[in-house]
Design brief:
This is Caspase family protein. It comes from Mesorhizobium australicum. The structure is a single chain. This protein is α/β, with parallel strands linked by helices. It has 21 helices and 20 strands. It has a six-stranded mixed sheet, with helices on both faces. Helix 2 packs parallel to helix 6, helix 13 runs antiparallel to helix 14 and helix 15 packs antiparallel against helix 16. The protein starts with a helix and ends in a 55-residue tail after the last helix.
Amino acid sequence: MLKRYAFLAALILMSLSAFDARADRRVALVIGNSQYQEIPALKNPDKDAEDVSNTFRQAGFDVFVAKDVTKLQFEEKFRNYLAAADGADLAVVYYSGHGFQIGGENFLIPVDASLKDAADMEVQTIRLNDVLQQLRTKSKIQVIILDACRNNPFPRKDYWLRSQLIVSDGTGLAQVTGSQNALIAFATEPGAVAYDGSGDLSPFSSAFSRRALAPNQEIGAVMAAVRRDVVKATNGRQVPWENSSLIDDVVLMRAAGQPVQPAPDAQQNQQVAERGTLVATATEAIENRDISVPVGVGPVALKLDFPAKDVSIKLAGYPAVGTLSLPDRVLSPQSSLMAAEVDQLRYEPQIGSAAPVEIDFQIRAGNASKRATMKLSPSVDLCDQAAGEPLDLQGVAPGRLPNEIADGAVEACEAAVKAYPDVARFRYELGRALLVGGNIDEARKAIQEASDKGHVRAVYELGYLASSGVGMPVEATQANGFYSQASDRGDPYAMSAWGRALFNGVGVQRDTGKGLDLMLKAAAMGHINAMNDLAMIFKEGRNGVPADPVRALAFLKAGIERQEAYSMGILGLLPKRSTLAVAVCTPKVVTKVITKIKVIRTPAPKVPPPKIVTPKVPMVPGETGPSPWRGTGGDHDTNNGNSGNSGNSGDSG
């Protein structure tokens, strides 16, 4: 009996070890905004981002780097980062640039922000709380580090936040309360201003890059050392500060293992020529190879079939993006390997990066040494290309609307499900393709399976099916349950749908404030349908929210910047006395929108070209209900009155 329990315990420990190895995924997003378009440039953030990203890369993180990003560029980069962070052990965001507080909330400022009108804060900036909320839904541990404690440099000081016009009266950044197992670090204490310093790097970023590479140091000790360095460098004028609710230890830089030595020679007098032959044979096994690696399916075994045994191998050149790993650990630059481990190498491409990457190996036997280079080329599965969905935070492709899904999508997605049965995304995309083909029962089954396996957009889709009555009676209350679940897990479609239901009281008790907030969050994630709904609310004034044509125009302009035809349609309904309306309706913008409508997207390889249906600019019905026009009808082709369904207006940017 004791032996049996010992055997079971061993199995459990083995399972836990395997789980830990798989779950030990660390992802970082590093942003540096220096070249602002409407205000003076900052001298440090671009260099800060480069230095800090190198630090995280050396520590073995999959690092997403973004410099001088506009609002649209941030949305795209952040979506790719969130897809990579899904299920990660540790997710880090490091931001250097302009950031300030309004009404006790912190906002990060893209380089194209103008903040001239009261509504611009909602459409041109990044709300820090939204970033933190998204990370909570994705990762076990969240760390946000902000070198952005600066005063508001824009002339305007009052801005709309939800239902209130707030006047800025604070300096620096406001204190942030994180969730359990989170750390939010600031370059200086709440309400204070950080300094740029006299060098290429800010005092805070310079200290962080230096201290973060201390091996096996817990992050609390790292930040304490950073604080001492910055206080000394600024003569006490700047004191870094953090708010931590961490319950797990976080070590950024793990101690490198001892260099692996080659096995002792069977014969001590082995000839140098023989060693040279051994190195040459090992080099030929990996030299000039180009391996296609699928994106978004986890670490992929490279299967190098490495022949050599009595050699030592060191990573001389690490992939520029993505992560290289063994089954039991993630590798960092300059890692050493045993010859037997080379066949176990795995690579996980970075989501959103299509360029090939290279790995350099230094192979040595005795005094003989040679360098070998191998290329890895990311590839997007045909199912993702044919039936991926816009704004899917677990997706890997820009996505297609239902009327753009190609005829061969079902076959492509069936093959993907068979090849990767544990990747829930492929089951959901199969469900989308089946819906387009009219196979409702099979589609519902595939979507339910995707939902059961953790695909959040599939949960939203179940809500759509319930709200629209596709293959079943309309169930608004049931639909709202799905929308609420998916909204809590960060899905922008669901935020918009659940927000509209709450705002209008459709199938649920009305909560105007919460509904408005959810629609604003969906719009901040780039969801155009939410932007259009907000524009109509602010155009007319509904449910206690005052009419404000300028605020409505701000959201329409945001939709037009994403090349949305329906935003242009609503724009024509607004009062023509507004000078901003004239500015938005310039020939340049109109040309951009019309061009988008006429674009026929490049079809997926080996998949028939998609059937493009040119969207029609909507007419406003004559009814006077709480929601007289429902935008584009979402991701699907039909509207259902006040069903509470939001969907998607086709934006992928």
